[in-house]
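BUG-133 | component: ligand-complex export | severity: low

The export step for zinc ion jobs runs without errors, but we want the raw record kept on the ticket for reference. Input record follows.
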Amino acid sequence: MTLDHVGVAVRTIGEALPFYTGALGLSLVHSEEIIEQNVRVAFLKAGQSSIELLEPLSNEGAIAKFIEQKGPGLHHIAFRVPIIEPEMKRLSDLKAPPLEPSPRIGAHGRRVCFIHPRFCHGSLIEIVEASDA
Ligand code: ZN
């Protein structure tokens, strides 16, 4: 698996962006709203990987809850695979089952799944299917 991106929960992208583009010198390459997950996301290129900033669109949803409970900060680590289903099956067989039985559509319209931190030594893991698969 290849490191695809690191997800960081922020209160607002507008507030966090100057640090990532200014202090860290990363470039903003993409941003969109994912209504089903109640978040706005912004991707910043960092070499072969990216940083994904996640801003809650309201007080509802997983990111809003995360910030309320833990404050802003590291949220998940995402790995890229060529085709997602065989990895989901493989991870389930290895006792690290995805949260949902089939992939959902994430940022960039890519198919993704998440694995609960309790199966990953404390970190939420996202698996994303390469968009050119
Ligand atoms: Zn992500």
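Assignee comment: Attached the raw record above. The chain has a mean pLDDT of 95.
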